[in-house]
Amino acid sequence: MFLNQTTYEVDSRPYAVAVADVNNDNKSDIVTANLDSNTVSVLLNAGNGTFSPPTNYSVGYAPGSVAIADVNGDNKPDIITGNGASATVSVLLNIGNSTFSSRTNYQLDAYSRLVAVTDVNSDNKPDIVIASSDARIPISVILNIGNGTFYQQAAYAVDLQIFAVAAADVNSDNRPDIITVNAASNTTSVLLNGGNGIFYHQATYAVGSQPFAVAAADVNNDNKPDIVTANQGSNTTSVLLNTGNGTFSPQVTYPVGANPQSIAVVDVNSDNKPDIVATNVNSDTVSVLLNTDNGTFSPPTTYAVGAHPLSVAVADVNSDNKPDIVTANEHSNTISVLLHY
Fold it and tell me: pLDDT for 8-22, tens place per residue?
């Protein structure tokens, strides 16, 4: 289903990857957050799923996550990173011509681990949700006041050792809710949005051992987003179906490769059912689990990628209307691109 990888060099220790058309040429580009060099690398799509050498931009100290969204309403996608060691979020505005401004840093009260970008207060401006490994402030929300500037950090308590955060409207009230995975308690937490960017107390659900990544997607075609986690301690992925009103059924687990640490849920075989793609850092592979119907999944097919793949994104990078796989490979300072055939 996927061709052998093509690799591209980036800056030191790529820890996260995102894919979006950053220069409005209708081709998907790649952005990585590079932990040791305190940079993001932007690789422009040269056509046919090949990429130019990276352009690097400085961000805060030890960026461990990256998101791409138009935060200032100019129809150009901007870059947002969560910088773990400096307790900051960096925003790089897209100034056109495939270039980005110098970073603006926003100081947090706790180390930032991962970020998600979504409009939490229904003002049509994307806000930033930050997950932290700091037990004092596990979840923070900073609101967009326009022109890509942000203010007001609100904090919410969830279980300890948050390793990932996602946002989705799980209870069909047209407001995005927050989903985390919590490695210490082997759980996922759901915080419902009460309006105006205020979130209710969490509900928790059991998942596999040491969950490290989470995605929200409707895997059983009932128009309600479900939860999928990657569990590094048990080498599994957990699927929790949404039973309505933002509550979830007990997990069903599926085996993947060794030490899965990133996950994407996308329809990779064009059957209108979202499939699971997980990166396995100890086996240097990605696992693809096809959706066999009603939110159940086939055994995994594995593909080789670079050394220690910490992050995965799935997008059509060669304009053939088939989703391709992109991974960030921490130990080889590369990204891998696997084209769908």
Answer: 999 999 999 999 999
Q: DSSP for 157-193? A: --SS-EEEEEEE-SSSSSS-EEEEEETTTTEEEEE-E
Residue 142: the pLDDT is: 92
Rounded Cα gap, residues 204 and 91, in angstroms: 31
pTM beyond 0.85, yes or no: yes
3-state secondary structure of 97: coil
- Strand 55-58 and strand 39-43: the pairing is antiparallel
Strand (E) or helix (H) holding 1: none
Amino acid at 159: D
What pLDDT score was predicted for residue 135?
64
CA distance 216 to 306: 26
The stretch 100-113 carries a mean pLDDT of: 85
**Residue bearing tokens 């691109």:** 337
Q: Record the tokens describing residue 302, joined without a space.
A: 């594995």
Most confident of 76-90, 100-114, 206-220: 206-220
Q: Which two tokens stand for residue 241?
A: 């179906």
The residues pairing with 92 across neighbouring beta strands, listed in sequence order, are 79
Strand order in the sheet with 236-240: 211-217, 226-231, 236-240, 252-255
Torsion over CA: 301, 216, 330, 52 (sign)? positive
CB 201 within 8 A of CB 190: no
How many Å apart are CA 95 and CA 103, to the nearest integer?
12
Q: Tokens representing 310?
A: 């910490």
- Catalogue the long-range contacts made by 288-295 (C-beta closer than 8 Å, 24 or more residues apart): 288/1, 288/2, 288/325, 289/237, 289/254, 289/256, 291/219, 291/267, 294/220, 295/219, 295/220, 295/226, 295/239, 295/241
Q: Is the distance from CB of 290 to CB of 277 less than 8 angstroms?
A: no
Q: What is the pLDDT of residues 35-88, one digit of tens each?
A: 999 999 999 999 989 999 999 999 999 999 999 999 999 999 999 999 988 889
% of the chain with per-residue pLDDT over 70 = 97
